[in-house]
Amino acid sequence: MPYRRTENVVRRLAARHAAIIAAARDAANEGGMAAVQIAPVARRAGIAAGTVYRYFPGKTDLVAALLTEVAEREIGALRRAADVAPGPLSALSAALMTFAARTLRQRRLVFAATTEPVDAEIDAARLDFRKALAAEFTRRISNAIAGGHLPEQDATLAAAALVGLFVDGLIGPLAPDASGREREVVQSLTLTALRALGVADARARGLVVQTRVSDQ
Amino acid sequence: MPYRRTENVVRRLAARHAAIIAAARDAANEGGMAAVQIAPVARRAGIAAGTVYRYFPGKTDLVAALLTEVAEREIGALRRAADVAPGPLSALSAALMTFAARTLRQRRLVFAATTEPVDAEIDAARLDFRKALAAEFTRRISNAIAGGHLPEQDATLAAAALVGLFVDGLIGPLAPDASGREREVVQSLTLTALRALGVADARARGLVVQTRVSDQ
DNA sequence: GCGTTGATTGAACCATGGTTCAGTCATTCG
DNA sequence: CGAATGACTGAACCATGGTTCAATCAACGC
């Protein structure tokens, strides 16, 4: 009874698993969720359609894995940006700007991950992303309120609304064309968001200075 | 060569046309765009599936007609609310509150009409709705800026962002449960929206007093 | 009534896209 | 090597849902 999975095989399997998710992510970023189809994703990953089913029980699970991966990556990025800020308000501001900047860079992917419905099962995974995102914002908003930097308000409601504000302002169907002036659009929308939270003079206070946005 | 369409027949055909759209609207408001399927809509309208095709060339056209109808109805409502307001800022406020209140009453329908993608062809019709909505907001915002009631800003960007703010804050997947406290949620979000536009003290100025929202 | 014309029906058709699986290939171990 | 085991393939399968159309029905004008 031979065939103990050798180290090499394990590595190859893991690599393929990742390659499938990466292929799905690329497809989503190019054509939205509608483009995440088994056959094309498989082709992109260099395997046959059937093989996908050796790695994921079904399409739903693949998409869920994709969304989880995207969520971790995005939320990690804004957490890192916020954590180096000097105070609660600038941490919040940094998180917002980072989200805005990254959203602009990966428009379709973020749209797919936050907004675009597919079916009831996948909705749950998308919800997790939004939840994590909103939770991150809620936490930062609450901190700022606690520190007296923002007026009392329903942080949860505000966070949910902010996600919508950014998504629609940046990559919604009516979002202005930002090419060549990304920085300006990101700053302007962050300013609007901060005003929405009750910061009257964000610009004067230097809260919306652009920092480098990590690539990872 | 008899059979000139008699008056009665014309009426019946028109009524059926309307009944199909109404059935589609009800379906959308109950189950989102996914529930707008030819067979169920036909059943709801009391006709056979094939008959739909005597009234609409295809599903796309039916959905487009539905969205057009919804757009007219909704935008009419907020225009009426704004037009009776005493000044530009309260007109803007009235439009926002009306949109919020009506959105809360027809959650799925508004979500379907603003956000839920279906396919490329239908997207165009949804875009028209959003455009009309955003245009209405843009106009009101510009008026308020011109009158010196709001700081200078990109009214188009702000309008697009506000649509997102409301949709996500009210009916997005993370929107708080508003049942029983609709008024409060509507006011709170309108307040947030006005703050986003640069109105620091909307509540003090009595801008978010609830008015009756028409039913039509 | 009755012929003519248009409206209606609903089952068959078709396209799309996820899923399965019998056959083939690759890797391990004695 | 060669037997055993698992991975891979891709064409066939299936479900869903829009669309078509031959048969049927209903209304009009004579």
Polypeptide structure, described:
Two copies of one chain form a homodimer. With 216 residues, chain A is mainly α. Helices cover 69% and strands 0% of the residues of chain A. Chain A is built from nine helices and no strands. The first copy, chain A, has helices at 7-31, 38-45, 49-55, 59-83, 88-105, 107-114, 120-146, 155-170, 182-197. Chain A is elongated, with a radius of gyration of 20 Å. The mean pLDDT of chain A is 91. The A-B interface holds A 32, 34, 115-117, 119, 123, 126-127, 130-131, 134, 153-154, 156-169, 172-176, 185, 188-189, 192-193, 195-198, 200 and B 32, 34, 115-117, 119, 123, 126-127, 130-131, 134, 153-154, 156-169, 172-176, 185, 188-189, 192-193, 195-198, 200. The first copy, chain A, binds a DNA duplex (30 and 30 nucleotides) through helix 1 and helix 3.
Mean pLDDT of chain A: 91
Question: Which runs of chain A of at least 5 residues are low in confidence (pLDDT < 50)?
Answer: none
Largest sheet of chain A: none
Percent of residues in beta strands of chain A: under 5%
Principal-axis shape of chain A equals: elongated
Biggest interface between protein chains, with counts per chain?
A-B, 43 and 43 residues
Secondary-structure element series of chain A: HHHHHHHHH
Number of helices of chain A: 9
